[in-house]
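The aim of this short unit is practical: by the end, you should be able to scan a pair of folded records and say something sensible about each. We start with the first protein, listed as its amino acid sequence and then its structure tokens.
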Amino acid sequence: MSDVMQSIQETLEGMGLGYQILLVFAISMIPVIELRGALPVAMVAGMPWYIALPVAVAGNLAPVPFILLFVRKVFGWLKAHTPLGGLVARLEKKGERNIGKVQKYEFWGLTVFTGIPLPGTGAWTGALIAALMDMRLKRALVSIALGVAAAGTAITLLFFLGLKSLLGLH
């Protein structure tokens, strides 16, 4: 194991489970990183998968209701009142580009899209797509939750099936 990886692992392991849980939950809420980044951190910290997975899923889902309820209003206000209009327009275009992949199968399309463990396909983008499609809140939440759980399961399995040894972790 490299000195850097060993140092990171020792630091995370020394934090204690309570701090590790908070760290994994917080990382899971960050756009783009989401649980795809939080689960490897949890595993490096030595957290048991049966604690890490539900914490990461919960953290990843925490912002979803707010995105579903408020993203269109927030985007509208940002475009009208701030210099962030160009960024917002790009985010909307990204969501609209992905709508076609999801719209045909709506619920299951959103579940599969959200469950693909790659950057740009997680809960944040899924929630944006659901909001742009005017999908009902409860239906969107369930679909996104299933996708996030699937992505988390895939990342956890990948970690134990090879990523752990590639990183030189014990």
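Turning to the second protein, read its sequence before its tokens, just as you did above.
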Amino acid sequence: MTKPFRFADAAPPAVHAPATARPEADFVIRPAAVLHENQARAILAWLDANSLANGGLWNIGSATGIWQRYDKARNGPYGGCEDSQLVGGIYVTYDLPRRHEVVLHRVQVTDHGLMLGWTTTLLVDELLGYVGLSIATCPRDTTAPTSYKKDPFRNGGGYGAAAV
């Protein structure tokens, strides 16, 4: 006679860490990388020319401070994304520490991006390569408050927060 199945006897389901727990998918740049005015203008112009609205692969969230890269240009009806998927995003802050400069402080790659072979370094280097930089050679903001150097996403950190 067979023993009746009980849920308590079953093996627990496999637990997978979220994408943000993997270093290749989420990277906080410390100290933050800074694009000086001429580099920032050149990259913003390039991002605009290569935006999803213009048939490119980038979405510029000037209000949100996230530059997103997609795997394909929009190909759906009426400019919809259809089957293009997000590869990753670069979190930026405008006009800090000085006017007309852009600070890159976080990079994330989606699970889809990881499956395509993207890493945080590749994502940033693709963008910075347009102005002859990489994440390794990009100038850093060493004058930022201590809280920003540590982690801008904890305890309301960032340039507006008091140093901890």
